[in-house]
């Protein structure tokens, strides 16, 4: 935490204005670089010895003044033109560095990945510049350029490889970046044997296999897939299901392995009815929301979950909040982010002497009501390298 000054540094006046003036001075002095994210409210309020409500009023004043700006779902950031120029800013002290983090979304899946990154980087006294590509290749390119121009020392990147015509070519071009980088939840799709890219990913296919093995152990023979197309993980999830069906002798009925860009209510209802006609007793869904919708439509068609139809989801973002809490494959999101940050710090420290790492972390299977039974203890190993 980098709140500056001593306890007597607050000027006189209403408390929130005192705090606003304190933050204004700190920003002007370079405590947070232009474009850098402020600490979370709780931590910053604690550092300044004020309530969260007082801090919020102070930050709101700085937003009105144009000193900082809020990004929905991301946090509060110093405006790029609010601080001193690069020449005027104090030089980094000790090992303090600025790390750029580029993710596709700040509202789903990736907030917990970013939390893991921020925890490690904060402990290392590194600052974070966070941006979202919003699954748009144009925005991704401009944000990446802006980060490099801002002067980041390293990058943690989640590129939209699934939207690119030549994803391997893009990864190859990343090697020309002026700073070290680590890929997060992405890996080179067709790498050369000596590809130097360092990455940390979840073993999505392994997570799906674990879920299907659990369903088979519960006696389910005919299992469907309610899948997705064109997401960052859809290919690996689909491959995991195909491998599990083959290796675990799963019966695949016609029309019950379906993948769509989006699932409408009508399509979900039709799918639930078709599974009932085909004798499917369990469905694996790529996404909590699709799984929750399937539960609703199954029950509307006279199927009881989990007695008539077991449902397992992938992601575990909102799986536990429904009327029937969902059994879900839970990627180790914070651990992925934390390990990626550690590897980047190692690259920053050791330079070309740092070896490339290719790391997979196994997801957990979190058992809830929608599958009907608990797995043996072996189904719950701690997250770790696969």
From TrEMBL:
Keyword DNA-binding attributed: yes
Keywords: DNA-binding, Transcription, Transcription regulation
Signal peptide (UniProt feature, chain positions): none
Keyword Transmembrane helix: no
Domain of life: Bacteria
Ranges of residues in domain HTH gntR-type: 13-81
MF annotations from Gene Ontology: DNA-binding transcription factor activity; transcription cis-regulatory region binding
InterPro entries xref list: LacI/GalR-like_sensor (IPR046335), Peripla_BP_I (IPR028082), Tscrpt_reg_HTH_GntR (IPR000524), WH-like_DNA-bd_sf (IPR036388), WH_DNA-bd_sf (IPR036390)
PANTHER family: ALANINE RACEMASE, LACI-RELATED TRANSCRIPTIONAL REPRESSOR
Protein name per its UniProtKB record: GntR family transcriptional regulator
Native organism: Streptomyces sedi
